[in-house]
Hints:
Layout: H1 2-16, H2 27-39, H3 43-53, H4 58-62, H5 64-67, H6 74-79, E1 86-87, H7 102-114, H8 120-137, E2 143-144, E3 155-158, E4 161-164, H9 165-175, H10 181-190, H11 194-200, H12 205-219, E5 225-226, H13 228-258
Parallel strand pairs: 1-2, 3-5
Antiparallel strand pairs: 3-4
Helix pairs in contact: 2-8, 2-10, 2-13, 3-13, 7-8, 8-13
Amino acid sequence: MFARRLTLALAAAVAAAAPAPALAWGKTGHRVTAAIADEHLSGLARAHVREILGVETLPEASNWPDEMRSDPHPFWRTTSSPWHYVTVGGITYDRAPPEGDALSALHFFRRLVLDPKTSAEHRQLALRFIVHIVGDLHQPLHNGRPGDRGGNDVKVKWFGRDTNLHAVWDSALVDSTGYSFTELAERLSRHTTSAEVIAWWNPEPRVWIAESVQIRERIYPEGSELGYDYVYRHTPTVELRLKQAGVRLAAYLNQMFSEPRK
């Protein structure tokens, strides 16, 4: 049912597409993930990406699904909203709800990219979503507990400013580095060893989700005042997940484009 509803909505979504403000990992985080992935693409995967996106780069494509969430079309305001996260009540992902979630959307968009009957516009939309969703699944709070909307309902003060825990992890911790996305991607890549790439090279989304859920349980603060101590304790985890997301995105795309089109 999810796939059928999504297919019917796609044509209207493509027709309605227009630039809009971005939301969340934050622009910087998604671009960093995509830039790191670009370094690890196989020649075949790179050719497929270029065929689909044209002159658009992976970092440019990475924020598009968030940018479109401000579009007034129902596809972006309602239908696609659940595709940026999963909800995991315990420690193991169970199944997607009827409206779908990030994992079911990722599987659908993979099939769409590989289907030779898919139009060029829909294949482009699908690849943009894939790039984005892989990043989101590495953000711990996009793998949320039931009941607090991935930390959106956990109100905190970030250096005295009212915000919520989800926003801290989407943007504030990344932006606190002060780096541009190119600077941060270069720095993280330089500090990623070949052994780490080998160890992280896993294109299975359920593995990424399980990792994020484990991390999620360690990042809820005891108090509501967050500042330098929280930055010190959790920036290494943010950087780890950005690096892993980049490596996994490359692993996912390389595997996906190694499959022959049906």
